[in-house]
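Fold this: Chaperone protein HtpG
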Amino acid sequence: MSTETIEFQAEARQLLRLMIHSIYSNKDVFLRELISNASDALDKVRLAAYQDKELGAETDDLHIELVPDPEARTLTVRDNGIGMTRDEVVELIGTIAKSGTAELLAQLRDAGDGEAAQLIGQFGVGFYSSFMVADRVELTTRRAGTDAGVRWESDGEGSYTIEPADDAPQGTSVTLHLKASDAEDQMHDYADRNVLRRIVKTYSDFITWPVRLAGEPPAEGEEMTEPETLNSMKALWARPQKDVSDEEYAEFYRHVSHDWQEPLETIRLAAEGTFEYQALLFLPQVAPMDLHMRDARRGVQLYVRRVFIMDDCEALVPEYLRFVKGVVDAADLSLNVSREILQQDRQISAIRRRLVKKVLATIGTLRDEKPEAYATFWDQFGRALKEGLLSDADNRETILGVSSFASTHGDEPTGLAAYRERMREGQEAIYYMTGDSRTAIEASPHMEAFRDKGYEVLLLTDPVDEVWVDGVEGFEGTPFRSIAKGQVDLQTDEEKEKAGEQATEFAALCEWMTGVLDDDVKEVRLSSRLTTSPAVLVGDEFDMTPTLEKMYRAMGQEPPKVKRILELNPSHPLVTGLREAQAAGRDESETAELLHGMALLAEGGELGDPARFVGLLAGRLERTL
Ligand code: ADP
Ligand code: MG
């Protein structure tokens, strides 16, 4: 096969240009990215060779080598890891356009510089960061256990070439033809041995494979110098906590998470004895693009005694904590464990339980001690965390305890403990209402009496809220109660007495209206939740809310039709007037229909027959002119 030239996709080109020309102020990090990839490749070949003795992979001296050539102005980063096949090179290196690129580009266009860096950081364009320092990049690779090598080359502009390379050794070698502009800058001359020493020490010290600086070519009459190992190779999670600096944690976080930011919080835990393990976990600052997409990956890697076993280890973290990044290193597992075995493993479930508790406790500590960090966390990951209210019954109270919710108390979200402290005397429930937005809920007629009497209401607007509120009974013994469902009891004894009298007075009206609106509502009754609106629709305690119905429709499912209850405000002139007219024997069924339609509109609902409603209303208005 001869050389093929392949065009980058348009999106990929745009992304590259943005990254190279406008975003990174710190170019040194390209080396961190290449070393990180090489380290992953070494992890993979060790595991592959262990699991498949027939593979024929070489694993004797696994390492990473940096070969600077000041004369030729090149830097080569070489590993003898797993390597890539031709198809893999095209797929992994030739395509920067991972899922979400288009969306990312759209967001980038609107973003300022600082924000743009953040966005790209979430996306992670690891290998391509080489083009920040190189005009041209060559990559030669051979997949372990195969004998067909591949050479790839690109200037990072429009296209790349790919051709066979028969003499390629196992693993991958990336040669950067360094930009002339960096040669002048002593601190950033990437063909300079001291610069390389410094960068590796800063960004890649914890890499568990040796990162060697190649020996220097001999000067006249001298011998080639020995290669020199630049990193300490100490796994960070195995070092005493006090000996690891924040910077080191941050670099390690970047290595495991492929994120470019610092972590929001670092979590360490360890156990000794029969189940020995160490874990180093991180809460990120920014949610990845795919956090709420189906099949989002989990961020925890499994190691066994410093040996990498797998990425995305779902046995170690529940789905609702998929945003947690890091590693767990377990001492007593077989290197051969499969995902299936892990799911059954008692030791792994014990680790998982402890890890969940620790993460939740950390979130609680953040809230108590670092309110700003907690606010960031909640903003990014609160929605995911609340999924745990349904899926993790054992930790439900704890999750509730570290969650926060928008509330009528103020602009800042509140915790439930704080809500309980503010509860009024005699208040027996935590009141909430679900809906599409804070404004919509606050404007809803259901709020009237609660606002009037000073009861705090939680305003729940995440789609997941619609679901958990039905599955969760209460918090520390106080039940949750929707203000849009069932009867509300906010009345004083005096008011109750009055309500009793009104009930008798309006009994005939309610009965008549129940008949007229039979197709749409299951009952018409008097309300104690209204002060200014004439009528409101409410659900029975276990009925679906209108928002949940909408969600079903959005997913293409028609929810079962539930008739709701129409409540009337006995102090509203429209309602008292209607009562008198009906008692006088006039046919007011159209007014009843209008009243029902208005209640639907007031809560942001959709009319069953809008044309008919408009016709009735127009007729009515006409008569008033
Ligand atoms: P990421 O590391 O976040 O996946 P990169 O752009 O750094 O993104 O790399 C893309 C992919 O290319 C890697 O996931 C890996 O599969 C492959 N790759 C990159 N460098 C190497 C290497 N040295 N050896 C083997 N595979 C590599
Ligand atoms: Mg990478």
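The two ends are 86 Å apart (CA to CA). The pocket of magnesium ion (ligand 2) is lined by residues 33, 36-37, 126, 258 (CB under 6 Å).
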